[in-house]
What does this fold into?
Amino acid sequence: MRRTAEGRSIGLETSGGTTPAGQEAHPRFFHGFLTHPQATAAGLLCVADIAAARYYQPQLDHWRDPVVTGNGDRLRFESFSACCGVYARLDVLGDAVDGEIGHGTTNVDVNAPLRDALTRVGASDPLRLEVGPDDMTVTTFDGPVVEKKVPLPERWLRGFAETQVIASGFDLRAELPAGEAVRYLRGLPRPGATRGASTGARWVVPAGRSLRATTRPVPGAVCLPGPERLTALARVLRHATGLRIYGPAVTAGSGPVASAWEIGLPGMRLTLTLSPDTARGFSGEGGVLDALAADESAEDADLVSVLLAWNPVVEIADLAVQSGLTPHRVRAALTRLGTAGRIGYDTAEAAYFHRELPYDTGRAERDNPRLRAARALVDAGAVRLDGETAIVTVEDHSHRVRSAEGRLTCTCRWWAEYRGGRGPCRHALAVRIARRTAAPRTTTSTTAHDKADISTGATR
It folds into this structure.
């Protein structure tokens, strides 16, 4: 620990990375002051709280390491809970900083001394942020706290990949003013009020300026799985300017789904994305498997990665025009890049964003057991295609895979249990791979539907 009398500051540093100008040994992400120091400190503590929490089979976990990205016009701090069922992101926008924001990504340590320093930040205290090579430094009036980098949990890589796929299917469902948001969130059950996994999903629907609970999903409803997981927002409620809630479209027969809860702060946004159940971590959702199974997405990902350029808002329509790929193939390429942690999704702007983590896209494919099993089935000649139906033979039994309403269904136990809610089973993946292998490769020319996406700027 170093001590100075220069006032209160935070320094986040990395040992090298990729910038718009190319590789730099010691990229500078940011140096300057935070204009809302107390609210920013509370937001950072919330992200750190999530990283240290375990909501499924609760126990005190060791500290984890939030990821920080400089995107040129904003800073993003991200973390997952230890059970990987909650994803937290604090977006510090340009209005909340006084200084030059650079480009790059690193993971930073948040231990007890740093937490104590952030807790003591007052509303009028100066808070300086600097991003450099190897450590994170918070300087208070009592002196600096220096924290070193440590390895990023590998499970987070799978979580980053899955959350950007899931969140890209969200739309804004409800918006509450500050007073109603604080009242609602303070009324949620505290951790420990339920044991183990949630016994069932809660649902809420907009009701004027607030929310109303409903016992079942209805059109326009938002799933609130494990509501005690939102109590981490208590740290920032005194600074809240409103609440926005995002989720996928649901029907009366929908099962539990993920949702995102975004607290507005002065010059910032703090978003918690909840998995469909306390017992389900994002790392096992399987939303990236279809993109990984597409052979052309690997080449497309190499092309699209060159065009990302650290943009804080990555538009599919723009990438389609620049790359000559269809929007569908751009989307698949972004999903594949997401498996290396290079792509995130911002529900507030309905757009992707670029980050860099030290992983390669092939790692997720090599480490995914369902995808490995599917490729093994294809290599063994276990897939027999027959129009819209396919037979997949596994040892002494067979499974029938059918196309229905744009997706594949299967007669296996996995499909019977999850109904596609956790991605395709290995048999359906094998059928997709076999069909793509048998079909002639598509060109990069855009279809009429894709051109409509481009002309309207559609991102989904």
